[in-house]
Design goal:
Elements (H helix, E strand, L loop, with lengths): L1 H19 L11 E2 L2 H12 L7 E9 L4 H14 L5 E6 L2 E6 L7 E5 L5 H17 L10 E9 L2 E9 L5 H19 L13 H11 L2 H14 L23 E8 L1 H13 L4 H17 L3 E8 L16 E8 L6 H17 L5 H8 L13 E6 L5 E4 L2 E6 L10 E8 L2 E9 L5 H20 L13 H8 L15 H11 L4 E5 L2 E4 H17 L7 E5 L4 H13 L2 E4 L6 H11 L3 E4 L4 H5 L4 E4 H6 L6 H7 L9 E7 L7 E6 H14 L7 E4 L7 H10 L4 E4 L2 H4 L2 H10 L4 E5 H8 L11 E5 L14 E6 L9 E4 L12 E2 L3 E6 L12 E7 L5 E2 L3 H7 E3 L9 E11 L5 E6 L3 E4 L2 E4 H8 L5 E12 L2 E10 L7 H9 L10 E4 L13 H4 L17 H14 L17 H6 L1
Parallel strand pairs: 5-6, 11-14, 16-25, 18-19, 18-20, 20-21, 24-25, 26-27, 27-28, 40-41
Antiparallel strand pairs: 1-4, 2-7, 2-13, 3-4, 6-7, 8-15, 9-10, 12-13, 14-15, 16-17, 22-23, 23-33, 28-29, 29-30, 31-32, 32-35, 34-35, 35-36, 37-38, 39-40
Helix pairs in contact: 1-10, 3-5, 8-9, 8-12, 9-10, 9-12, 14-15, 15-16, 15-20, 21-22, 24-25
Length: 1037
Amino acid sequence: MAGLAERIERVLRAGQAAEDAPLRRADRGEDLPASFAQERLWFLEQLEPGSGAYSVPIGIRISGHLDAPALGLALNEVVRRHEVLRTTFAVSDGRPVQVVSPARPVELTRLDLRHRPDGARRDVLHALLRRDLEQPFNLAEGPLLRVKLLRLDEEDHLLLLTMHHIVSDGWTVGVLLKELGALYSAYAAGLPSPLGEPPVQYADFAVWQRTHLQGPLMAEQLSYWRRQLAGAPAELELPTDKPRPPKNTSGGARHYFTLSEELTDDLKSLGREEGATLFMTLLAGWQALLSRYSGQQDISVGTPVAGRTRVETEQLIGFFVNTLVLRADLSGEPSFRELLGRVREVCLGAYAHQEVPFERLVEELRPERSLSRTPLFQVMFALQNTPREVARAGELSLRAEALETGRAKFDLTLVAEELDGGVRVMLSYRTDLFEAGTIARMAGHYRRLLEAAARSPEAVVSRAELLDEQERRLLLDEWNRTRAEATAAHSVHELFERHAAERPGAPAIVFEGREVSYGELNERSERMARRLRERGIRAEATVGVLLERSPEMVAALLGVLKAGGAYVPLDTEYPEARLRLMAGDAGVRVVLTRAEWVERVKGWGADALTVEKCASEAWGEDGAEASRKDRGHAGGENLAYVIYTSGSTGRPKGVMVSHDSLLNLIGWHQRAYDITHADRATQVASISFDASVWEIWPYLAAGAAVHIVDSQTRLDAGRLLSWLADNSITVSFLPTPLAESLLAEPMPRGPALRALLTGGDRLHAVGGDAPPFAVVNHYGPTESCVVATAGPVSAGGRENPPIGRPITNTQVYILDALMQPVPVGVIGELYVGGRGLARGYLGRPALTAESFVPDPFGTGAGQRLYRTGDLAKYRADGNVEFIGRRDQQVKIRGHRIELGEIESVLGQHAGVSACAVAAHDAGRGQKALVAYFAAREGTAPAAAELRRHLEELLPAYMVPSSFVELAHLPLTENGKVDRAALEAFAPAYATTEYVAPQNAEQEVMAGIWSGLLGVERVGIFDDFFELGGHSLLSVRL
């Protein structure tokens, strides 16, 4: 208790310091300054005049026989007594000052709703309230109070007072109730006012505040807050259901729930053990939940305090409330008991330094500002533990009534109200960010976290179970019910051979106008398989395939599989050093290639087998049969191929995929897209890209034709669209950027194409009319045999399409850092399991163990999950939304930004056919966003036009500083945006060097800034706020 006593003493000393400076009536002959809080609201009103965002409705329910004239007299007397209700605001030297007008009769609007049914009465009330809130106040002309009296029944009235927040706060309600009750009682009885005159007014408090909060007291208090909030995150990175708009639209809703009496008592008991109040205990739980939702360990929450540290202010109406920032540290895996101790210390420190107005704190700390979120914190917390006031006025009772305003100033606000029998919780939220279902789930998670804390306060709070049984079953079981029977074959070449035997003359491969039949492809591949077996190729042996995209390439791949080996695709366009490294790492002894590359292969220490030699050797009528009899056996567990992907260390890593995994992909694909021998598919991807696996084998295993797209056509969207139509293609996979470009092209009439499949990158919203074919988005790492999830795409939406649900025999989990399932809507890391999972990385057991981890949810021995490194979240309908890779998140001025979100919005512009956003170094340790775009044919969007488009839909810090138009975006061989190549087109940035004004307008602006900020030199790339500017100076500017 000694620590608590010391803290209380510090709080009392702070209060005593306030008492030492007398609060007296100020001279009314001089300008009366606005208080710090009023000044901030006045600034916001100048920023967005007439918004009505700070209109505060107060409802007073009056029960009993009402004397309306007496009530009118009481209202007029309240306005006379409190100058703040007669105050307007003028400007003096760029700052707001209070102007107090003489008392005038209050205009009381009366409405009789007795004749309306209950439901209609509620509708009218809500409509009245909405209109009243939407009607702005004029701070310069006033009045800043509107009053309506609604008669609901014979002895039931609602007094609706709407004030601007600049003249009122929550405490005001109690003062109003008390004074209205006393005055009404007297006037109804024909008696004079029983209330004495207030010794001081709100304007006197504002003068006192301006003079008192300076010197050593302010310096000491500000020093505390500078230390306390040093390095605090600029934002709480809560996952939202909707993209954050450029500014808060103020639309809000509420969700109510309760904490039981038993839980409340347990929490109070736990708090007493730690010397903490119920407020601190509930706050610790709230901050722990926010940490779980955001993934952050540094959580700042705002909380209101009355701000009436002097006894003279307790009976005044006015805007006294202050806001404290309570910052919790959840690092180091604390138990709830340990976290509660940390929160208690923070609260006591904040109470001892509550004199600093929040507005002064913001001005001092100068955090990054945005119209889309509040500075320093975006979530509020409050506890009301005093009974709701009820005033008696003769036979009348007057009580405050909560009104549903349909507004929310903060992302989230949790208000707990202690009642007999537990705690009632109101969770208010911004409807432009969250859906009602998300908030309802969050309420349940808060309750369960508190229950876990009360039950086991010593347990690590980050491990507390948030999900109920139904949620766990949904996430772990129901959304992963993908079991299906395996394909009735041991290998893909077995399925291919069935079709070669049944329809030998059918086209298997089509390339540059020539067809290779199933019979011919079978013979070519058998020739290669026989020569490979002669060189010792059997199961688990790796064979390199160094060929361009061609029928020979497909025959070579098939030949390796028939020999029993595993193919290693080697892209002919790769640098020599990389190919040598891959071949050596894979232990390749034989490379199937062309004669022209034999010497190249010999340099790798491997044996070259040319396709020309295989084709020219004698092959009798019984050659194929003899070859089959001599075939090495490869079972489902044996390797089918090894594909190399980039490694974080710069060394590529070989992903080993078995026949079973490949057959699972084939079986799913054929069922999902009704693949038959009548289909015609495309082969677009480089052999080194795992998509080539998906483009070839499901079709050859179904007797369909695979059309290889020529190099000139494959990366040109317009040309490719015509090619698809000319060749009557029915199913095509295109990498995401190429698919987006193709969908932006004018569609031909009646194409044969029935399904456009895409994946490999984040797909942006598909605008405009729906194309005449299905579009399906896919996701899958190479480590899960190309595809793990799939989902149809709807046209015309503004949201990014999800990546869908897991495919056959595949499980998908979204987990936190402790591998616990995260709730629906919460971002976590995507894990993939199931039959499609790769064996691991060739020759890299440590890396395999790190990336392929034991499946904590599996029921069979040895089940594993692949840790993708990708961020995702579940939508409420079970679809997975891809967020991006961790390494594609960037910080701009303290804000974490997903580049894909900006790309999604930019891609919605009618003049943009393709786009990418990158963060480049801009000097001084800062990064700047640059948007690269290709214009849609026939359009020429200017940078200013694109900037306005983004400013309408995104916060200012997410709008790129530069826009670069390109004829087309650079693509890798795999069809993905080549982000490294974008840097070659980056604009030259201003860095730390001073750049003088370049024209007359810039010179005038620099001079104004110099005078306002007191700096000698202002460059054209300097930031107003970084040079010391603040909100009021910006108004003067």
